[in-house]
Amino acid sequence: MNIMVLNCGSSSLKYKIIAMPGEVELAGGEAQRVSPKTTEPSRIIHRVRGKESTHIVPMKTHAEAFGEVMNLLKDNPELKPDCLGHRVVHGGSRFKGSAMMDKHSIADLEKISGLAPLHNPPAVGLLKACDDLYPDLPQTAVFDTSFHATIPNYASTYALPEQLRVDEGIRKYGFHGTSHRFVVEEAARLMGKPMNKFNAVSCHLGSGGASLCAVKNGKSIDNTMGYSPLQGLMMSTRSGDLDSAIVLNLMAQHNGDPDAVENRLNKQSGVLGMSGISSDIRDIISRGDKSGDDAAQMRNTASLYVWRIRKYLGAYLSAVGNADAVIFTDTIGETMPQVRWMVCSDMEVFGLAIDSEKNDAAKELPADITAKESRVRIFAIATNEELAIARQTFLLLDKQSEKNQEQEPQDEDINP
Amino acid sequence: MKILILKTGSYSLEYCYYASEKETSLFEGRLDNYRYSASDKIALQEVLWDILKLCIDQSNGKGPDAVAIYSKFGGEAFPQPAIADKDSLLKMKSLIPRAPMQIPGALALVECCQRLMAETPIVLVFGTSFFVPLPRRETMYGLDPKSSDAQGIRRYGFHSLFHEAAAQSFNKDKETSQKIISICMGAQPEIAAIMGRSPVMVTSGITPLEGLPGHTTCGEIDPSISLILAKKFGWGPEKIDELLTRESGLFGLCGERMTFDEVFLSNDEKHRAAREIFQYRLMLSCGSALAAMGGLDAIVFSGRYLAAGKFLADWLIAQPFFHSLKKERPYEVLFFTKSLENLIAQKAAVTVLQQNNAEYNKEVS
Question: What is the per-residue pLDDT for B60?
Answer without folding.
Answer: 83
